[in-house]
Amino acid sequence: MSNRRTFAIISHPDAGKTTLTEKLLLQGGAIHLAGEVKARGQARRARSDWMKIEQQRGISVTSSVMTFQKDGVVFNLLDTPGHEDFSEDTYRTLTAVDSAIMVIDAAKGIEPQTRKLFEVCRMRSVPIITFVNKVDREGRSVFETLDEVADALALDVVPMSWPIGMGGIFEGVLDFATDTIARPEGDSREFLGKRDAKGEGAPIPAEVAEEIELAQAGYPEFDLEAYRHGDLTPVYFGSALKNFGVAELIDAIARFAPPPRPQTSEQGTVLPERSDVTGFIFKVQANMDPQHRDRIAFMRMVSGTFKRGMKLTPSGLGKPIAVHSPILFFAQDREIADTAEAGDIIGIPNHGTLRVGDTLSEKNDVRFTGLPNFAPEILRRVALKDPTKTKQLRKALDDLSEEGVIQVFYPEIGSQWIVGVVGQLQLDVLISRLEAEYKVEAVLEASPFDTARWIKGSDAALKGFADFNLSNLAKDRDGDPVFMARSAWDVSYQQERNPELTFSATKER
């Protein structure tokens, strides 16, 4: 397992994350042709973006898993949605990784969503390698970018490479480790493998040479322990589109990124060296193969050696299930996995028995923690265009809430179900997937509620609250009681009136 590297790529939308994902797969030998996301026709379909809405808009809206091997190291790459409207999916994905690559646009620097995702990584002490992308275009000064990463994210920064000019005067990237310069070639000015030793080939402009001297003298040396502790980030410069800096990035993940890390559970820390198999479900995806209406639960292996056909007990079920067809992923392509080690991500086909947050184990003596649901920021009622399709709608909403795309609330009074999301784009995905995957046409209508809170307390306290507030109560898909509030003031008022109850904006799975 020490040769496993399980990592995510995080960024603001349009920083070049999906392009970088493809180039990492290309360098790793996992694909032989890079299809640009914004190209036309068939070439448009980036391997990690397989949903219809992703292909139409050229964005990632669901996390996907890709496994590849290079030089004896197994890389498990989790591509996450960049758009803030899918932050829940991204958050849960980050619980399953041991490190992350943070992609920053050289012209724009740190953008709001990058900062949010970084905070999630910090909470979990996930070590981060920074990749400053698009240096072949006009961008800000290198020092300005480095200072922003250091100041805004409170991280020590160590440049591991340096761009020789930017935009129209871009002449390559100097790698400090090898003291070689990767040079652009041909009309498209891509990196095609030509490297000059520093001092050979075209001379480095005087002002850039001065910057490099300053950087090497002024920034600290790379400290592996500080990086793995989440206090320091090595910074690489390059262009994913033109293939600069990608090989160095793979090398950095192999050399520096940590192998599988221990995970916290209700029973204490579970080490990857533990002999029996344990793991947790961090994502469920329906209809990756629409023809078969499949449901795949993504499990992060925490310990042990999994063998195909093994029986594991899900914490939510209590009785063992045999895992006959575990899957290794390459985006939506897949192959049967005979074995898997700590750090690997395997897919388990199931029919609704496995849920996000479930722990799977051989002995059923452990339960992993830390996969929360967040209170929705937008609530909408769902209205069917064809009332005869109520059953299909219920099935679709259950499936999609199981995935974490939406949350569903069933009001105690009234028949119209309410969906809750973190961002508007999730609603677009909901309508698109209802139509494409379930053949259900629906519209979303305004809801009288503004937000939701999970409520907990004694049975007597809950009953007393329900007697006076039944029109504001709903159940989530687990059957837990939820207070549907018309405003933030409403939440505060009820908290004051009912001190024996807790009104929570998160719910741990």
From TrEMBL:
Keywords: Cytoplasm, GTP-binding, Nucleotide-binding, Protein biosynthesis
Domain Tr-type G positions: 2-261
Annotated positions binding GTP: 11-18, 79-83, 133-136
InterPro entries, sorted: EF-G-like_DII (IPR053905), EFG_III/V (IPR035647), G_TR_CS (IPR031157), P-loop_NTPase (IPR027417), PrfC (IPR004548), RF3_C (IPR032090), RF3_dom_3_sf (IPR038467), RF3_GTP-bd (IPR041732)
A Gene Ontology cellular-component term: cytosol
Compartments, record wording: Cytoplasm
UniProt keyword annotation of Nucleotide-binding present: yes
Gene Ontology MF: a single term: translation release factor activity, codon specific
One biological process term in Gene Ontology: regulation of translational termination
Function: Increases the formation of ribosomal termination complexes and stimulates activities of RF-1 and RF-2. It binds guanine nucleotides and has strong preference for UGA stop codons. It may interact directly with the ribosome. The stimulation of RF-1 and RF-2 is significantly reduced by GTP and GDP, but not by GMP.
Family: Belongs to the TRAFAC class translation factor GTPase superfamily. Classic translation factor GTPase family. PrfC subfamily.
Record-given protein name: Peptide chain release factor 3
Species in which this protein is naturally found: Novosphingobium olei
